[in-house]
Amino acid sequence: xxxxxxxxxxxxxxxxxxxxxxxxxxxxxxxxxxxxxxxxxxxxxxxxxxxxxxxxxxxxxxxxxxxxxxxxxxxxxxxxxxxxxxxxxxxxxxxxxxxxxxxxxxxxxxxxxxxxxxxxxxxxxxxxxxxxxxxxxxxxxxxxxxxxxxxxxxxxxxxxxxxxxxxxxxxxxxxxxxxxxxxxxxxxxxxxxxxxxxxxxxxxxxxxxxxxxxxxxxxxxxxxxxxxxxxxxxxxxxxxxxxxxxxxxxxxxxxxxxxxxxxxxxxxxxxxxxxxxxxxxxxxxxxxxxxxxxxxxxxxxxxxxxxxxxxxxxxxxxxxxxxxxxxxxxxxxxxxxxxxxxxxxxxxxxxxxxxxxxxxxxxxxxxxxxxxxxxxxxxxxxxxxxxxxxxxxxxxxxxxxxxxxxxxxxxxxxxxxxxxxxxxxxxxxxxxxxxxxxxxxxxxxxxxxxxxxxxxxxxxxxxxxxxxxxxxxxxxxxxxxxxxxxxxxxxxxxxxxxxxxxxxxxxxxxxxxxxxxxxxxxxxxxxxxxxxxxxxxxxxxxxxxxxxxxxxxxxxxxxxxxxxxxxxxxxxxxxxxxxxxxxxxxxxxxxxxxxxxxxxxxxxxxxxxx
Length: 610
What we know:
Blueprint: H1 3-23, H2 30-33, H3 42-45, H4 50-53, H5 59-62, H6 79-100, E1 128-129, E2 135-139, H7 145-155, H8 167-171, E3 188-196, E4 204-212, E5 223-230, H9 241-252, E6 260-266, E7 270-278, H10 282-290, H11 300-313, E8 320-327, H12 338-349, E9 354-359, H13 371-379, E10 385-387, H14 391-400, H15 402-406, E11 408-419, E12 424-430, E13 450-453, E14 457-466, H16 483-490, E15 499-509, E16 516-523, H17 536-551, H18 562-570, H19 580-600
Helix pairs in contact: 1-6, 1-19, 6-19, 9-10, 9-14, 12-13, 17-18, 18-19
């Protein structure tokens, strides 16, 4: 790349990032625009929602923001400046792209800078032959941290590095309008949908959807919460401790007199700030939070031990007993063996004390955000992992989805699906790479799996190829049972001959040690002819999963791109009550521009090294 092109590309990058910062990834709908309001305006911005009118006042939250600590992700740029910057950047990008002649096949880079942040590399699920391996087994996952970390990076003008995005967490960030459970003895409903896949020609997409029964916040059982807060020096930036304080205030405003709240802080040493105060003692909680300052090193292991001691001290029988860990994940002192921490929280969950993890901040100075550890801790402790990058995200997790955060309605939820080789030639599970289970684990109640909270929706997607597909990746074997033989065998069991797959789920009801089994046949009659015939939820989930696969540079996606996914997502917005889907479309568009910048970069060059 010559000097002229280098100067031009740098200018384009600067303009694009300026546009992103000015707009704050502004959303194009009225609903989503509400989310970029300052904290003091959250209440008025939410008045159109009937549920929001019943929320406690949030104005106290804004009072905790200090003048010297600006609120993260709140930008006040004008619409005119945003449009101008966007047009200028788009024009410049197109000129550079046309001058560079870089093909998509050369794309092996990312704009994400080198930091100390820790993300586990994902080994993508491969294409499986149904005649050889007909059974797929995995644990459900309701974490959402990967979505908000991806959003944070893109809002900063960076794409996540290859294979660091957990696709299932992107898909499950959104709620879907699945049927509510009709059987009071079954905590969640199950439904499936089958339509053409947008990722490859002559393939199908199978969607499995679960929805847990919901419980209004005022109907929740008593909660015993221990807030374990990181106040180490790495938490000093505005998107960490100041945002954490606001998030905890939001949570405390949802609690009642029956609840108990304790606060434990950890830095160079650990200490108790509040010891089992009533949940409605907002003044005490606010005072305690306002006195917190970021300083010292991080000994998270000692803090965790102290937090669990308080949780046990104030344990509520038949209530929700939970530690909420809020940190940037920089566990750099004390016990260095993270597996010991994972084992410790897993042992505590067996005693009825769960752990949810909230991450704050990415790539700030020498701090090391540990996405992998926070996810693993919550997975092993019957909890949920979320990354809080904005005040709106805190509201989503700790206010709008409070019931799901605090109340687990089923645990050790496992999914097993057996594909019919007489109908299906190949299949591929999209996401859930670190939640895979052995086939024998499904019936083994000693094997841990994921939890589902009140009102949670869980979605899983399989891309499948029928035996008559013209786009099969694997040829039939010559000397073993062929599809025709399998079809002949199916005649012995005519009731299964037209089944695409057989879906089985296991879960444990709260307080039970033995799992219960649910089964559902999936028939080819469910197959829709065209993708546009599928529900909004199906098409939107497909767009989100496609986005995650593009970010991970998935080797099995050939017939889609950002433009197609944007069109697909925009056609499936649904009611979008809180504007999250509109926000996603804006993120898609921004990522599309950033992806073009990657194409402009020479194969051995990163922007951060120029």
